[in-house]
Give the backbone structure.
Amino acid sequence: MAHKFQVELAKSGRAACKQCKDKIDKDTVRFGWSQDIPAGDDGVKNYAMMGTKWYHFHCFPRFKGAKWLQTNLPDLNEVTGLECLPVEDQTKVADLWNLLKDGTVPASMAPSGGAAGPAGNSPGAAGASGSGDAAGKPAPKKLAGQKRAASTAIEELTAEPQGVLTDAEYAAIKHQKQQWAKKSVAQLKDMLKMNNLQVSGTKPALLERACENFVLGCLPVCTVCQKGKLQMARMDGALTCPGFYDEALGRYSRCKGPAADERIQRIMWKDE
Ligand SMILES: [Zn+2]
Ligand SMILES: [Zn+2]
C-alpha cells in the first residue's frame, strides 16, 4: 500500500499529534501521513483506514523506526503542500526529509572540518564544539561518522521544545539523554516500568520520557481515575490522562485528567 505524506501549517490548534498526543499548535509545521488502501475483494475501500494522522515536526522522526522511514519516505517532491510553506519552513522540512531518507547532513549542520565547511561556523566555534575531530586527521570510519553526523543533525533539528522547562531543567534532560543514549529499548522500558511510567513508543520517545521524569521527578498516577499514567505537554505544562483499560467493563475508559489548577506532586525517580 502506498504511503502518502503531506506537510502544512496547522490550520487550527485542535488536532493532536499521534506520536506524543499533545495538541499541535495553530500555524506550526505538521506532517500528515495517510495510506491509500487498495480496495478489498468486494471492491470497497476501507476508508476508515485512510484518515490522515498528524505529527509535530519534532515528533515525525519518531513515529516509525529509522529503517522504516528510509524505506518508505517518498521523494521530497511527492510531499504535498511543501511549496505552500514559508521558505524557512520549506528548508527545515527539506533538511529533515533528506536526513531521514538518505542521511544527508545539510551543509549548515555539517560537522566542522568537512570539505563543504559551513560558512556560518567560525573556526573558534568549531574548536569549542568539543566534537573531538582533530582537523586533518582522516576519519577512520567514514560511514560510521556520517551516520553519527546525520543522527546528531536530526536530533538538533527536532529537539523537543523547551516549552515550560527552565534552562537548567532543559539542559539537565539533554545531558541525561547523552548518558542513557546507549540503553536498549528493553532497558529503557524496565526503567520506566520501575517508575510506573508509560512504556509505549519508539526508542527516542522512551529515552525522552525517562530523562524528563528523571530530571523533574516522576509523574504520579492520575489523581482522578487512579489508573491512568499522566503525561505532560511540554509547551504549556498541561497534564492529561490517557485513560485506562477497565478490566471489569472490558473496555477502554476515558478520563478528563486532573484539573488545570491541581498541584501534582512528582515522585523521586527510582533506580531499582
Ligand atoms: Zn508530537
Ligand atoms: Zn485519569
